[in-house]
């Protein structure tokens, strides 16, 4: 019973044979990758869109449908299929067409990598009504508490954005514009505070102006 | 009849050696990067083990089939192209069908390419053996790798999070040992398992040596 084949080694193969082998391997690998990519791309995009949709309905309670709005040259316009995700926010409406709030995505460097979040903002009252972390690589067990920690999440039940959003130590929150940090996850907590402050600065004026022009 | 039996015996051996005698993690100490990095929960460890299994078995089949067509001088390059292709395929498939697991494993899926266990099996086994044997070898090694990752993952999740496969074990009163799900916990768990494994192996060896000595003494 011969189990191990002898590798034929009589003579050196020419360069052409080697180039042909590797070229063919590269070509076949390319064909396989392109087919798998094309097959999975719509599914992956759908997964992401689904996660975003679920997050929007979660942070804007009472929302029945929403509209994507893109910021171009300082004004907001309705878009279909967002091209530039950094400049898109989502206006949520209830069954009677009243505004339930605006869902604003944002990203900011945390302890490990960018933390991607989406938060609900009610322009009439100037409060943040909910925050959901979409993507983060924060330290498991410490920084990733920003995702689930109930005490931290309760900061965003009604967080005033005026005058500015401040991050304070746990137990020291005494005004509605302060966020209580998580003990042991100060960097991640501060990143969230910074993210919200920068994002509100960017979006407050265009949203207010849009609502003035469109009384819906 | 006799040859058939010996083939079956050999086949079983090719599969079983990866699980115990030549376990890639506990004996050969290969593939340490995923064994330490993504074993903070049992489910992540299992997913990593299964992704590695897919890559190792598929690459072994292809390398074994092409073993006479690939010129010796470019074999490593060709193996890496084959491995990288399968890794990218599993990366896309996980992102499409198991987005949560894909998110948890992050960059470590792409890093399966440089898992020396996979290239090692191509070079030392699949490139020299028939497809059947190559599959058995790859499946055995993968099973051993997955088993090892799962051991580390279970220890780390129970101690570091008080849960197993996401189910809480001890209730709210348990204070988790956070260090076990942080990077040092990987080293603690692996060190402890290596110690246990080697102690068991040595004890076994000592016993079998003692037995041989005894038989030799018999007149």
The biggest sheet of chain B, with number of strands, parallel, antiparallel or mixed sense and barrel status, is: 2 strands, antiparallel
Described by the principal axes of the CA atoms, the overall outline of chain A is extended
Main-sheet strand order of chain B equals: 1-2
Q: For the CA atoms, what is the radius of gyration of chain B? A: 20 Å
Short description:
The complex is a heterodimer of chains A (216) and B (219). Chain A is an alpha+beta fold and 216 residues long.
Which secondary structure elements does this structure contain, and how are they paired or packed?
The complex is a heterodimer of chains A (216) and B (219).
Chain A: H1 15-59, E1 65-72, E2 75-78, E3 88-93, E4 99-109, E5 114-122, E6 127-135, H2 145-148, H3 150-153, E7 159-160, E8 166-168, E9 178-180, H4 186-213
Parallel strand pairs in A: 8-9
Antiparallel strand pairs in A: 1-2, 1-3, 3-4, 4-5, 5-6, 6-7
Chain B: H1 2-19, H2 32-37, H3 42-65, H4 75-97, H5 99-105, H6 116-124, H7 131-161, E1 163-164, E2 167-168, H8 183-217
Antiparallel strand pairs in B: 1-2
Describe the structure.
The complex is a heterodimer of chains A (216) and B (219). With 216 residues, chain A is an alpha+beta fold. Chain A is built from 4 helices and 9 strands. In chain A, the strands form 2 sheets. Chain A has a 7-stranded antiparallel sheet. In chain A, strands 8-9 form a two-stranded parallel sheet. Chain A is extended and about 85 Å long. The model of chain A has no long low-confidence stretch (mean pLDDT 82). By secondary structure, chain B is mainly α. Helices cover 70% and strands 2% of the residues of chain B. Chain B contains 8 helices and 2 strands. A two-stranded antiparallel sheet of chain B has the order 1-2. In chain B, a hairpin with a 2-residue loop joins strand 1 (163-164) and strand 2. In chain B, helix 4 (75-97) packs across helix 6. The radius of gyration of chain B is 20 Å and the shape is flat. In chain B, 39% of the residues are buried. The mean pLDDT of chain B is 84. Chain A binds chain B through residues 1, 3-5, 7-9, 12-13, 17-18, 21-22, 25-26, 28-29, 32-33, 36-37, 39-40, 43-44, 47, 51, 135, 137, 139-142, and chain B through 3, 6-7, 10, 40, 67-74, 77-78, 81-82, 84-85, 88-89, 92-93, 95-97, 99, 103, 106, 127-130, 133, 160-161, 176, 178, 181-182.
């Amino acid at each position: 019973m011969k189990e191990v084949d002898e590798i034929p080694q009589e003579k050196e193969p020419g360069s052409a044979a080697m180039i042909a082998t590797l070229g063919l391997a590269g070509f076949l690998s390319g064909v396989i990758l392109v087919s798998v990519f094309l097959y999975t791309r719509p599914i992956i995009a759908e997964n992401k869109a689904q996660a975003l949709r679920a997050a929007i309905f979660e942070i804007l309670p009472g929302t029945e449908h929403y509209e994507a709005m893109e910021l171009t040259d300082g004004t907001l316009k309705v878009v279909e299929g967002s091209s530039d995700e950094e400049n898109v926010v989502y206006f949520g409406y209830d069954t009677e067409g009243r505004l339930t709030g605006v869902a604003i995505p944002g990203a900011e460097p945390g302890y490990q990598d960018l933390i991607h979040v989406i938060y609900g903002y009610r322009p009439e009252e100037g409060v943040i009504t909910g925050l959901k972390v979409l993507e983060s690589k924060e330290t498991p067990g410490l920084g990733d508490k920003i995702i689930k920690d109930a005490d931290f999440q309760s900061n965003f039940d009604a967080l005033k954005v005026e005058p500015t959003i401040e991050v304070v130590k746990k137990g020291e929150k005494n005004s509605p514009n302060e966020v209580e940090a998580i003990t042991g996850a100060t960097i991640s907590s501060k990143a969230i505070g910074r993210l919200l402050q920068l994002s509100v600065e960017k979006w407050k004026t265009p949203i207010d102006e849009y609502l003035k022009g469109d009384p819906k | 009849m006799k040859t058939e039996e010996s083939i079956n015996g050999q086949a079983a051996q090719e599969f079983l050696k990866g699980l115990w005698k030549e376990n890639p993690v506990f004996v050969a100490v290969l593939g340490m990067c995923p064994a330490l990095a993504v074993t903070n929960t049992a489910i992540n460890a299992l997913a990593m083990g299964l992704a590695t299994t897919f890559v190792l078995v598929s690459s072994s089949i292809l390398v074994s089939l092409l073993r006479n067509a690939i010129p010796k001088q470019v074999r490593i390059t060709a193996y890496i192209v084959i491995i990288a292709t399968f890794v990218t395929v599993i990366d896309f498939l996980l992102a499409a069908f198991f987005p949560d697991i894909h998110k948890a494993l992050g960059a470590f899926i792409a890093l399966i390419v440089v898992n020396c266990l996979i290239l090692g099996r191509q070079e030392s086994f699949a490139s020299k053996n028939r497809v059947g044997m190559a599959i058995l070898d790859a499946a055995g090694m993968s099973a051993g790798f997955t088993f090892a990752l799962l051991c580390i993952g279970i220890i780390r999740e129970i101690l570091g999070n008080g849960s197993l496969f996401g189910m809480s074990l001890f209730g709210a009163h348990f204070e988790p040992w956070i260090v076990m799900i942080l990077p040092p916990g990987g080293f603690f768990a692996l060190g402890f398992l290596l110690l246990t494994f080697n102690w068991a192996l040595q004890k076994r060896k000592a016993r079998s040596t003692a037995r041989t000595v005894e038989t030799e003494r018999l007149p």
